[in-house]
């Protein structure tokens, strides 16, 4: 899952080295936290969160066969 | 990324020989001059050949195709990607088993992928491209569904003499509805609300 998030985000940003993804397991959900270089924040959120929404949609598509609900935190 | 280092009497010679080896053209490659070389005395004594490093860059379209394949793989979908380019429109046709995962509910995953690909392609190119991602003819099927829905709701609007609102849709899906009902004289259509909740309203 981490690899998926990383490969979605990498081509969008200017500083791929600064992508950090952490995973946290809670009772009924898996929380992934994504942070990027300060200059790239806009590139992963987008106007009105349009890009963030698109990233989440693709990530959630991957969770269809896992039992736990997945959340993606950005920044 | 493919890369070669070549030598030649001048920089130009070296570049030409490298491009030949890579079987590519200058606009698809980046050229790095390592040594400009020296002519030497009378072209004989103390001459040094020019050395260049040439690497092929994938075109944005090729990169996007790889990106799409990569994501499909990680979602556990074996998908074939067929890319076609027409003017400023790039179409990626996906096909394979379990493609439904890539389409998602009402095509939302497909639309998300389409949006991301459009960003990636336009980020690395100087021309503006429109990107369409289609899976197993989904767009065409959806179009037919929307046209049917439009006609049915137009009849309903006429029968009840009340406005009928549709659910929110992306712009090109709204366009399909507007176009389908353009010639229907009994009703008018307009879009209402702001993205992402913008939806079509059919008015008798």
UniProtKB/TrEMBL annotation, chain A:
Keywords: Cell shape, Cell wall biogenesis/degradation, Chaperone, Cytoplasm, RNA-binding. GO terms for biological process: cell wall organization; peptidoglycan biosynthetic process; regulation of cell shape. The keyword RNA-binding applies. It comes from the Bacteria. Belongs to the KhpA RNA-binding protein family. Forms a complex with KhpB. This is RNA-binding protein KhpA.
From TrEMBL, chain B:
It is found in: Cytoplasm. Residues 140-204 form the R3H domain. Its main location: cytoplasm. Transmembrane segments: none annotated. GO terms for biological process: cell wall organization; peptidoglycan biosynthetic process; regulation of cell shape. One of its GO terms (cellular component) is cytoplasm. Residues 5-55 are annotated as: Jag_N domain. PROSITE patterns: R3H. Coiled coil: none annotated. The keyword Metal-binding does not apply. GO terms for molecular function: RNA binding. NCBIfam families: Jag_EloR. Has an N-terminal Jag-N domain and 2 RNA-binding domains (KH and R3H). Forms a complex with KhpA. A probable RNA chaperone. Forms a complex with KhpA which binds to cellular RNA and controls its expression. Plays a role in peptidoglycan (PG) homeostasis and cell length regulation. Belongs to the KhpB RNA-binding protein family. This is RNA-binding protein KhpB. It comes from Aquibacillus salsiterrae. The gene is khpB.
């Amino acid at each position: 899952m981490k690899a998926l998030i990383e490969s979605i985000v990498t081509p969008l940003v200017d500083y791929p080295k600064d992508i950090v993804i952490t995973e946290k397991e809670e009772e009924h959900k898996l929380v992934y936290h994504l942070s990027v270089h300060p200059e790239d924040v806009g590139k992963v959120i987008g106007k009105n969160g349009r890009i963030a929404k698109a990233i989440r949609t693709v990530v959630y598509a991957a969770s269809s066969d896992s039992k736990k609900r997945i959340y993606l935190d950005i920044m | 990324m493919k890369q070669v280092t070549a030598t030649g009497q001048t920089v130009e010679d070296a570049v030409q020989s490298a491009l030949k080896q890579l079987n590519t053209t200058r606009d698809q490659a980046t050229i790095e001059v390592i040594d400009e070389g020296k002519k030497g005395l009378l072209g004989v004594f103390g001459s040094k050949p020019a050395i260049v490093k040439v690497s092929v860059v994938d075109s944005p379209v090729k990169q996007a195709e790889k990106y799409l394949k990569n994501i499909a793989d990680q979602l556990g979908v074996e998908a074939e990607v067929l890319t076609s380019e027409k003017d400023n429109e790039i179409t990626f046709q996906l096909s394979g088993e379990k493609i439904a995962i890539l389409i998602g509910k009402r095509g939302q995953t497909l639309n998300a992928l389409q949006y991301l690909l459009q960003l990636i392609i336009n980020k690395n190119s100087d021309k503006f491209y429109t990107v369409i991602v289609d899976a197993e003819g989904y767009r065409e099927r959806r179009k037919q569904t929307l046209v049917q829905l439009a006609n049915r709701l137009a009849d309903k609007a006429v029968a009840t003499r009340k406005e009928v609102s549709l659910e929110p849709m992306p712009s090109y899906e709204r366009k399909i509805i507007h176009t389908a009902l353009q010639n229907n004289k009994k009703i008018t259509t307009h879009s209402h609300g702001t993205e992402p909740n913008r939806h079509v309203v059919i008015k008798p």
